[in-house]
Amino acid sequence: MSDSGSQHSDEFLRWTRLTEKQRACLDLLLERKTSKQIARDLDISKQAVDLRLTTARDTLGAANRDETAIIYARLRQTYDRIPCDPVILPPAPELVPSDFPDGDPASLLHLNDNLARRVGSRSEGSPFRDLLRPNYRPQARVVIVVSLLIAVLLMVIAGLSIGQTLTRLASS
Fold first, then answer.
1. In sequence order, which residues have a C-beta less than 8 Å from that of residue 72 and are 6 or more positions away?
2. Burial of 71 (C-beta count, 10 Å sphere; 0-12/13-18/19+)
3. Residue 127: which H helix or E strand, with range?
């Protein structure tokens, strides 16, 4: 009578003695495929499949093809597990304290404004929405408006000169 530790090490030894090519054939055998279908899927000859399955059967100590599949399925369930890598797990969620005394915002708009200020990024919308905000000094507002008028005036002049050039080219 053998103890369970010895049986465990025997099974693990049999599992490690199987080659990757034998395991590929055994995986398809578990899908109830014939040697010919396995050969087609792996792009090898039927004789190569039969040889790999026979060698795997001898390695696993099985009497026939069905017993080989049963033993392999049990060993694969035990030893072919993908370990979890804790590095790729997302960080645990954390609670964020509320800016409001009672925990509820007065309005959703107020909440979005607070969030945008806290993060420092602009939310979706017009890129010029902060251009004429009320907290600019009056001198800064005048400079912004004059700059915009000059830019518009330059675009109008450029458009007129392009139009005049096209008129001269069309008339000649």
1. 18, 26, 29, 30, 56, 60
2. buried
3. none
Q: How far apart are CA 70 and CA 60, in angstroms?
A: 10
Tokens of 169: 């080219």
Please say whether the beta carbons of 51 and 57 come within 8 A: no
Instruction: Return d(Cα 141, Cα 131) in angstroms, integer.
Output: 9
What tokens appear for 99 in the block?
């800016």
The tokens describing 79, both together, are: 């030893």
The candidate with the shortest Cα–Cα distance to 75, out of 1, 2, 22, 3, is 22
pTM for this one? 0.45
Tens place of pLDDT per residue across the chain (172 aa): 445 556 667 888 888 899 999 999 999 999 999 999 999 999 999 999 999 999 999 999 999 999 999 999 998 888 776 665 556 666 777 777 666 666 565 555 555 555 555 555 444 566 666 665 666 677 888 888 899 999 999 999 999 999 999 999 998 8
